[in-house]
Design a protein that fits this description.
The chain is an all-alpha fold and 297 residues long. Helix 10 packs antiparallel against helix 11.
Length: 297
């Protein structure tokens, strides 16, 4: 909703200010200019990106517009899921098979619907628990593997924002393209003996193309691209949290310390205190007991 509010503010202030200044919206409404600019931008996106990048771009734009940002509930579910998985692994990594092989059907995973809804995060968790179950791997080796995987995921997920940002930078150029075509058309009517009023109207319509290109660049596409980058950073933070928990666990630390190591990577405005984390775990282990740890937090 914040994204939609921002777009409404931009549109309202720009066009509202224009109308207060005495402008008329019918002058701005130039569908052919809009078709040229938007069509060129969409065509350039389709031409310059493979299908999977286009699909991810659409997914990220929708998520930016409609999603709620990760909150404390998301962080709680992630940390408690990892704690339960580590507790299950304490009985032998093979005990995890029933959960990591079919997480959508696992009663353990079903207790954490916010994590089940994040497909990339879910796959990262189950794939790396499978890796740990396949054979002995030390903390240094696991950290190297996870760092490479996270870097690869980050590069792939960041590509849509980069591509959209480049198209945003090109929009003023597409606007000039539309304006030049408008001037060409104006020159053709000048040759036919058009009056000064018609010429002025056509020149004004042509210049709208430049306005549309600049507006779409700085008012829409650049902010949306920036929000997509922030979305990717938030998703990478969740992967980094999982990585630190797994590496700390493989290094021989008990589950609570491993979870606390992951807690430290949560962004500051959402990071629970250690006492609050203890309260969550106490309530998980003793659902009927008073959440003393939560009270201390």
């Amino acid at each position: 909703m914040q994204s939609i509010l921002g777009i409404l503010l931009i549109i309202g202030c720009v066009f509202g200010g224009y109308m207060i200044h005495g402008g008329k919206m019918d002058v701005i409404w130039q569908p052919t200019e809009l078709l040229i600019i938007v069509g060129a931008g969409v065509g350039a996106i389709v031409l310059g990106n493979p299908k999977h990048v286009l699909s991810e771009m659409w997914h990220q734009v929708r998520k930016v517009m409609l999603r709620k940002k990760p909150d404390e509930q998301f962080q709680r579910q992630l940390l408690l899921l990892m704690y339960e998985l580590l507790q299950t692994a304490a009985g032998g990594l093979k005990a995890l098979d029933a959960h990591v092989e079919a997480p959508q059907e696992s009663e353990l995973f079903k207790r954490y619907p916010l994590i089940l809804a994040e497909k990339k995060l879910l796959n990262f968790i189950v794939d790396n628990f499978r890796l740990m179950a396949m054979g002995k791997i030390n903390a240094h080796e696991l950290e190297g593997v996870l760092d490479q995987e996270i870097e690869s995921i980050h590069e792939e997920m960041n590509q849509p924002a980069k591509s959209l940002g480049k198209i945003g930078e090109a929009m003023p150029g597409f606007g000039i393209l539309a304006a030049v075509l408008g001037i060409v058309m104006t020159m053709s009517v000048v040759a036919e003996g058009a009056g000064t009023g018609e010429i002025a109207e056509r020149v004004g319509a042509a210049m709208v193309g430049t306005f549309i290109g600049i507006f779409m660049c700085y008012g829409l596409l650049d902010p949306i691209s920036n929000m997509m980058k922030q979305l990717v950073s938030e998703e990478m933070q969740a992967l980094e949290t999982v990585k630190v928990v797994l590496v700390t666990h493989v290094a021989g630390k008990p589950p609570l310390l491993a979870i606390d190591a992951g807690r430290r990577l949560v962004q500051l405005n959402l990071k629970p205190s250690f006492a609050r984390l203890e309260g969550w775990i106490d309530k998980l282990q003793n659902p009927d007991a008073a959440p003393a740890g939560a009270e201390r937090g």
